Amino acid sequence: MWRRIGIVASSLAVSAALAQSAAPSAQRQAELESMLLQDCGSCHGLTLKGGLGPALRPQALAGKPRQWLIDTIRDGRPGTAMPPWGPILSDADIAWLADRLLRGAPGKEVKR
Ligand code: HEC
Question: Is residue 77 within 6 Å of ligand 1 at its C-beta?
Answer without folding.
Answer: yes
